[in-house]
Design goal:
By secondary structure, the chain is of the alpha/beta class. The protein has 16 helices and 19 strands. 39% of the residues are buried.
């Protein structure tokens, strides 16, 4: 076997903090590796060194002549965000007669000017993508974007393909298909490197495992020897910190209509051009309900949320009642939004840099991404109470940027709760989290449901992973060429 690449004492400092520390590691041709570690272990930093996306790493990095010639393809969430951000900047819909700029389509993103061929047809069919080929990247679900980037990477015929948590954001059927595709790739001549946040995500075709924690190597070598190491098990399954009861609900300056449902949609449909996204949706969300909204990628979950949060103009003229008031009868968007707390991955990625954790939580009083208003001791005390309630008090004075991805998500949960929202919307809250942090956030959601009068709307591509408090299920089901919903209660 020949050496594919080698790292010698590779180190990387990111924002004055060590991201990787003295990593020595080599991969031989014919080996299939997984890099395992919890959120914040250094997996993404390692991939950025391998793909030469960073220039300030120290130590040695040697690549084989084959790898230098064929290159490395890297599929990750940040790549998807960069493509969408570029399309947003180039959006010229306000200058078009039809007020619609689809941006870069899936077909063009994959082919990049080349003609479609048999390989393109094979992989887009294999991943059931034919119906989205002419859709703009900005209008894809998380799972659809992940499929697009995977096909684009495979078609570049790389010497090494790095997949960062390839199952993230995929519904159950798509996960099954992705498992099969990864198994097929592992059995081929293509060198594959998987970045995994939990042991269960490592497929049988992986021969070797590198385990990272806090930027350092914990173990590396043949799969069985590494995965049976007790130190690795302790790293991946640490105990959860204790919780304390949250503070009393904050005073609300608004009143809700007694006895009225919080949300009610009657025979609601959404059509964009010739595409029907939702059809005949009926949903009543009453006091005491905690709802799980589930369905496959691209079914319309985000569209449904935008109708009830005031973000979608398609709500006007339809039978939608929010907090006892018919939509479009004089209420402002801000009067609607003040009653919600929201968390999604995009909020986390967009959050202002250079803030302390306590400042991020306090910004929840003002619903801002960043802190631009004066705040006082009462707000600080309440923010600290919520950090303590969720077991995060030790992080209060730390930089938000320095926290792991999973702890950042928990901090944003505290941020959403400081104003005691009537409804807490959690859009794929476990996306991007390792097993430990998923347990952490699901437990925190149940903690909130048990001790507060806030009601939960938990959005997931799969109903299999949800908090115990859920007592209502809104499920998207195929109907003709689109989706409708069924609502059941426990």
């Amino acid at each position: 076997m020949t050496k594919l690449f080698e790292l010698a004492n590779a180190s990387l400092v990111y924002r004055a903090l060590p991201a990787l520390d003295s990593i020595s590691w080599s991969v031989q041709s014919g080996e299939q590796w997984a890099v395992l570690g919890p959120n914040g272990a250094g997996k993404t930093s390692l991939a950025r060194i391998l793909t030469e996306q960073v220039r300030h790493a120290t130590g040695g990095y040697l690549r084989s002549a084959t790898l230098n010639k064929e290159g490395i393809a890297y599929v990750c969430f940040e790549q998807a965000k960069a493509l969408c951000d570029r399309d947003k900047k180039l959006d010229d819909s306000e200058f078009r007669a039809d007020a619609n700029d689809p941006g870069t389509t899936v077909r063009n993103a994959i082919l990049a000017g080349r003609a479609a061929d048999a390989l393109f047809a094979h992989w887009t069919a294999r991943l059931h993508m034919q119906h989205i080929l002419d859709r703009g990247l900005r209008f894809l679900s998380t799972g659809e974007m992940r499929k697009t980037l995977l096909v684009k990477a495979i078609m570049s015929s790389p010497g090494l393909l790095i997949l960062d948590s390839p199952l993230d954001g995929l519904d159950r059927n798509s996960q099954t298909a992705m498992h099969e595709i990864i198994d097929q790739l592992l059995a081929s001549n293509l060198a594959l490197l998987l970045l995994c946040r939990q042991i269960e995500d490592i497929p049988p075709g992986i021969s070797h495992v590198l385990v990272l924690a806090n930027g350092r190597v914990v173990d590396k070598g043949p799969r069985e020897a590494v995965l049976t190491n007790p130190q690795v098990d302790r790293l991946m399954n640490p105990p959860l910190p204790p919780l304390v009861p949250p503070p009393e609900p904050a005073a609300r300056h608004y009143k809700l209509s007694a006895g009225a449902p919080l949300l009610e949609l009657r025979d609601v449909s959404v059509v964009y051009g010739t595409t029907t996204v939702l059809q005949g949706v009926n949903w009543r969300f009453d006091p005491g309900m905690h709802c799980c909204v589930s369905g496959p990628n691209g079914c319309g979950k985000t569209t449904l949320l935008s109708l009830v949060t005031g973000d979608n103009h398609k709500a006007y003229g339809q039978n939608i009642t929010l907090f006892g008031q018919r939509r479009g009868t004089g209420e402002s968007v801000w009067e609607i939004k003040e009653k919600y707390g929201q968390i999604d991955t995009q909020l986390q990625l967009n959050f202002a840099r250079g803030m302390k954790t306590i400042e991020v939580v306090v910004s929840g009083f003002f619903d801002t991404i960043g802190l631009y208003d004066d705040w006082g001791d009462a707000q600080r005390a309440r923010a600290l109470d919520w950090l303590q309630a969720l077991g995060l008090q030790a992080s209060a004075s730390q930089s938000f940027d320095a926290l792991s991805f999973g702890l950042q998500r928990m901090v944003l949960l505290a941020r959403a709760m400081v104003k005691s929202p009537v409804i807490l919307i959690l859009d794929e809250p476990t996306l991007g989290l390792d097993a430990y942090h998923r347990r952490l956030i699901l437990r925190a959601i149940d903690h909130i449901a048990s001790h507060c009068d806030t009601q939960i709307i938990f959005v997931s591509h799969s109903a299999a992973e949800q908090p115990r408090c859920i007592n209502q299920h809104l499920t998207f089901v195929p109907h003709d060429a689109c989706f409708t919903v069924t609502v059941t209660q426990d």
